[in-house]
Amino acid sequence: MQKKSNRWLIWIFVVVAVVALIGFSFGQIFDSLVSNRPSPSPSIPNPGVPGTTPSPAAVSDIEKKNLQDLENGYLLILEKEPDNPEALQGLVETRSQMIPLGLKKVKDLIEPLEQLVQLNPEQTKYKVVLAQTLQRSGQRETAAQTYRTILATQPGNMDALQGFVTLLLEQQRPSSATELLETTLKNAPEANKVKPNSINETAVKLLLGQIYVSQKQFDSAFALYDKLIATDPKDFRPVFAKAILLKEQGKTKESQILFNSAQNLAPGQYKDQIKAAANTPSSLSPSPQSTQSSPAVPSQ
């Protein structure tokens, strides 16, 4: 029973990645944060990206020492220039690569990220990564406050909404998560008048659907997906979400039809991810050992 419950949780967060098509992943948001910086160690992928994190045994002692030397180099720069943004970004990037190797802990990212937030208060991406880091390190209340700070000025920020919803579900607070999204949807028409497209109502509704799934309110989830599909038949996201839910209920034939439809509707860069999700064994599969989620889908 526990395995099946865990499996549902895995799929809930797989589909959450479909919501805004950004893939709620620390590694991917971090990648965008430092996308202009060359990787100090190309052979060591960034943590958080499914299927790419190497095991500590797969990384040589030389590569580990290189990362430690690089960290020390950034620390030396910061001793002389505490507010050097490039050194702070480099330190976060390096430590993020050291975490899966057991050389650092997630909490070691917090201090430099807090400095980046202070130096760049207008850069929401730093706040999002900080909130995710706090969440991963177990500082949930501080993470929640950080998400609230972001949403106070950007109520339609899907990174923050997804992160906050995930946090509330982890805390067994689905009612609070539902209230957050319902309030966002209630305020969306006025917010979009003031600033067009500031709140993506479809993405918010898809995220609400995942709360229904987490609470096993499957009829509500299906009704929401069907309404979204009827509203915009060319949007592959609700089709994809419904396909995954059908698959998890053992309705293989029906789900495959929708997976095919989603693949046909989706832009080319998303087709492989949809195919991967369609081929991932469900909780009702004869191979319960498999818990690999489909790759997260980036933003359109």
Structure commentary:
The protein is mainly alpha-helical and 300 residues long. The protein has a domain at 26-138: Serine Threonine Protein Phosphatase 5, Tetratricopeptide repeat (Alpha Horseshoe), CATH 1.25.40. It is 65% helix and 0% strand. It has 14 helices and no strands. The chain has helices at 2-19, 26-33, 61-80, 85-98, 110-119, 124-136, 140-153, 158-170, 174-194, 201-214, 218-231, 236-248, 252-265, 271-279. The longest helix is centred in the middle third of the chain and has 21 residues, at 174-194. Mean pLDDT is 80; it is low at 8-30, 32-52 and 284-300.
The proportion of residues forming helix, as a percent range, comes to: 55-70%
Report the CATH C-level class of the domain at 26-138.
Mainly Alpha
- Describe the main β-sheet briefly: none
The H/E string reads HHHHHHHHHHHHHH
- Terminal-residue CA separation: 37 Å
CATH 2nd-level architecture of the domain at 26-138: Alpha Horseshoe
DSSP, total strands = 0
As residue ranges, the low-confidence spans are 8-30, 32-52, 284-300
Per DSSP, the total helix count is 14
Whole-angstrom Rg: 20 Å
CATH names the topology of the domain at 26-138 as Serine Threonine Protein Phosphatase 5, Tetratricopeptide repeat
Mean pLDDT rating: 80
